[in-house]
Amino acid sequence: MRDVLEELDERRSEARLGGGETRIAAQHERGKLTARERIEALLDEGSFEEFDMFVTHRGTDFGMADKRYYGDGVVTGWGTVNGRTVFVFAKDFTVFGGSLSEAHAEKIQKVQDMALRNRAPIIGLYDAGGARIQEGVAALGGYAEVFQRNVLASGVIPQISVIMGPCAGGDVYSPAMTDFIFMVRDTSYMFVTGPDVVKTVTNETVTSEELGGARVHTTKSSIADGAYDNDLEALLQMRRLIDLLPQSNTGALPEIECFQSVKQDDPSLDTLVPKNANTPYDARELIEKTADEGDFFEIQAAFAQNIVVGLGRMEGRTVGFVANQPMVLAGVLDSDASRKAARFVRFCDCFSIPIVTFVDVPGFLPGTAQEQGGLIKHGAKLLFAYGEATVPKVTVITRKAFGGAYDVMASKHLRGDINYAWPTAQIAVMGAKGAVEIIFRKDVGDADRIAEHTKMYEDRFLSPFVAAERGYIDEVIMPRSTRRRVARGLRMLRGKELENPWKKHDNIPL
Amino acid sequence: MFSKILIANRGEIACRVIKTARRMGIATVAVFSDADAKSLHVAVADEAVHIGGSASADSYLSIERILDACKRTGAEAVHPGYGFLSERAAFCEALEAEGIAFIGPAPKAIHVMGDKIESKRFASTAGVNVVPGSEGTVEDADHAHAIAAGIGYPVMIKASAGGGGKGMRVAYDETEVRDGFERARSEARSSFGDERVFIEKFVLEPRHIEIQVLADTHGNVIHLGERECSIQRRNQKVVEEAPSPFLDAKTRAEMGAQAVALAKAVDYRSAGTVEFIVDRDRDFYFLEMNTRLQVEHPVTELVTGVDLVEQMIRVANGEELSIAQGDIRANGWAVESRVYAEDPFRGFLPSIGRLTRYRPPEEGPRGDAFVRNDTGVFEGAEISRFYDPMIAKLCTWAGTREAAIDAMGEALDSFVIDGINHNIPFLAALMRHPRWREGRLTTAFIPEEYPEGFVAPEADEDEATVIAIVALTAELVRKDRLDRFNDRVAPHPGQLRRDWVVRVGDRYLPLAVEGGTPGSPLDLTIGREDGERMHVATQWRPGEAVWRGRIGERAVAAQLRPVPNGLRIDWQGLSANVRVYTPRLAELDRLMPEKAASDTSRMLLCPMPGLLVSLAVEEGQEIKAGETLAVVEAMKMENVLKAERDVTIEKVLAAPGDSLAVDAVIMEFA
């Protein structure tokens, strides 16, 4: 009996060493943690329950029969983050470079299935070289099985991917179908085909960093939702994100005790919108002064910065914030901003996270680049996302809400539950100058008359009151009371029941 | 008594005058420029009158507009505050011509004391010590030596037309004075085209000490003791105190007597200040007389209990002083810190912008000490480029100098300002500086102590431990809250985790928690690796910017700001990023590489198609993270492009007026 117990210990020790001490040292040398260290950092101390520790691959070609390591290049299992269940898999770069075999893929599928069945989030930690070529089509099959499970779990449980090393070829598509992708700066990159293939096919010379580093994916491609300086920072921030997420689309919103009273006015918001309508201000300040304790987990902070999206809490419960950012491009809606916000709004709607929208938008961005780039369909994505969302929607117009962009930004007409405006709001088809030149075209040469018309237009239309007269705005509120008003609105909406007509699924303009 | 007065000023001093006027039952009128429409002084006054554009010349310096405001509101008297029109004899005359009282001295005193040379002559005649020196210009080297021998070495040779240190020479003996004379003369000739030089006694280890005087129109003049204002940067006072730690009773009496004599000689009325320079032997020399209320008057008020603004108003109303010299007693010690919107780490350069957070310490008694904060701003206010960047004057009073300095340290620790750069890190560091605490000051204190510019002090082991404990307790409270999710599957731990490693900057400090229960408030013992155990108690809760509590024997007020996975903690001028880890996470943290600043941002790219409105930098300039580089207009809005890290500008590739495409390179960094 004794021997058997010892054998288990020995086997476990061997499995925990992965590809061996030399490879672990090499991993550390590159500034990276090992798969097991990463899981330790992500989960509550001592909470990790590992599955399939002794799985090995079944390949025999190319001499692989002799090369077997326990775990086969991926560590899988479950544990807790602040006491709540999460499933996890971490590619082990020390074993076959983390490459995916049939057996390796089956381990991932097992935790995917369990996460879905038990309605808990799943987090994948990527640091791998792609398919194990020696396994041929078996590896491809393995990938597709993983992809299919990603698709089925989408919108049911939160799926998060963290890229902490190479992630190439078949490996990229599973993260691409998850809710969020985060990267580690300088040590991670993501692409379908690497620099060598690029060179061969297009004769383009490019580094991995230029092709798919964290900078590219957070600022240009928008593949990644954020980037961190090192493994530990990334993993601890994932804990912060998980704390904000419900366990599934039927799970309750996570709630923590809130120490910051919502009754306290914040008079500094009364001076947030500058006197000059062309002077910017920081929408983040408004979000941070509305959310509990100024705590705001921003998504895609470095991409399409003309719109700010992210998660925070109101009275201890998770809320999604969307705000036009006047600091960048006047907060205009362009294709990138529309896509970024649309995806975020749909994420919130999937998981019953209420949405608070702050509006200061001068319209859609004009120009050939935008029109030829499909602005109509990209803008429609955000319109669609807000229109289909059934979660509580509270909207506050702080300044400009012009033209079609007014409609798009969670307006009353798109089933906004509570639509507030600050006294500084200007809700109109367009700004005064443009409007007057169209309405009074015959007076365009006459500066005095134009000035007179402009004044009339500004007084009548550049205010929240025309919209309020029609009930498009439920109430005009003092800026200082925003946190209280939004919080009360969200409280009232806790019982909201709204369903869209039955459909197989909608046909959002992709 | 007047029924209504107008305050021809802005900011904190306008608010301060209004406070006293209100207490005396006098109605107040504020005046404001465009930029000040939403200012605090406008809000607190009974009435406010708009007097013009943001530039001072169009508003606060316009005698005509202020006179007009007086007439429109029926104000019977004007308090000028300090700066602006406070020392313009013409303003005083214009008011009096309209039958409006000027709450300040008569035009003659302003006139005589307003001229540097004239005031010195006048003071000398009145029996006030002036810096000994040559009467006229110096003829030749022999003459220079003769003069120097007469006044005693060391001497300073200065160009008559001089300024900015050019044509200035210090000489300690005859050889140096002869040599220095020739050099100073040739420098004067080449720099100013005027070779005249004069010689003055060179004051060793100079300190700036001034006497507050108060005079009425009935011939009574008293002095209210001294203030020392030796802590200066760019010849501007930063920290003042009353009394001076340097003066003895005899010198104090002599300086007071001379100040009173001077005030009498010039028929002074109202509050005024006679400034002296005092050398290491306590010899003192007249510098100038300020014929107005000084910025630093609160320290005198705190130690004497006299409201100087009230006295000024009463004197202007023709009343006789109700206090005699014998009634004046300095009680305890007061210190004033001028909180400026400026960056102490970059040569105290001004900083402008929105005060997103402004939470001054509470005024009033604090234990045996007292806190006063004279301010003209509020949270959400804008610090504009048009006026002086002073945010507040924070004063503390206590029985002794040491206690007043400690109270100041604590008040600064709990003074929260965000949105702009400010000098609290410097002020807080000063309060713990040994030389300041010992009172060994000169007017060159800042350049002497920080020859390379101000740098934040480094925390020693004990201080790092205090910072670590603040962060650890914050983490314990935060963790407890997260341990109580409604949908958790693991059982609640039910107790505090015992072993932690706190990273303060680059130090890892193992700490052991003993006793205590989860949640807030916390009351527990924390043990250090070396076995020392400290009792820790705090009521801190998440979201509070200031952590207050006790750590061992210390009362601690520290500021917390979130950074990724940790906190930035500011305490006593120390600033550190702190992360709280379990021992295992600390091990993993040690494996993480040091990140060099990424070089992917060597260029400033235009983020949008637009028009380059202005460039804020030049080639070769060093810029700190967060500072403005350029302004691009797009969508009819100005977008401010700021440095994402500290950079040096290597090349500027665009000019204002250029139309830029997306990703057009505006400048390159070195």
TrEMBL record, chain A:
Q: Which PROSITE patterns match?
A: COA_CT_CTER, COA_CT_NTER
Sequence similarity: Belongs to the AccD/PCCB family.
Per its record, what are the GO molecular function terms? acetyl-CoA carboxylase activity; propionyl-CoA carboxylase activity
The cellular component terms of Gene Ontology attached to this UniProt record, alphabetical and capped at eight, are:
acetyl-CoA carboxylase complex
GO annotations under biological process? Answer: carbon fixation
| Signal peptide start-end | none
List the residue ranges forming a coiled coil, or say none.
Answer: none
Q: Quote the protein name from its UniProt record.
A: Propionyl-CoA carboxylase beta chain
Domain of life (superkingdom): Bacteria
What organism is this sequence from? Pararhizobium mangrovi
UniProtKB/TrEMBL annotation, chain B:
All copies of the Biotin carboxylation domain together span 1-451
Top EC category = ligase
- Which positions fall inside the Lipoyl-binding domain? 594-670
UniProt key word Endoplasmic reticulum: no
What Enzyme Commission number does this protein have? 6.4.1.3
Pathway involvement of the protein, from the record: Metabolic intermediate metabolism; propanoyl-CoA degradation; succinyl-CoA from propanoyl-CoA: step 1/3
| Keywords, sorted A to Z | ATP-binding, Biotin, Ligase, Lipid degradation, Lipid metabolism, Magnesium, Manganese, Metal-binding, Nucleotide-binding
Q: What is this protein identified as?
A: propionyl-CoA carboxylase
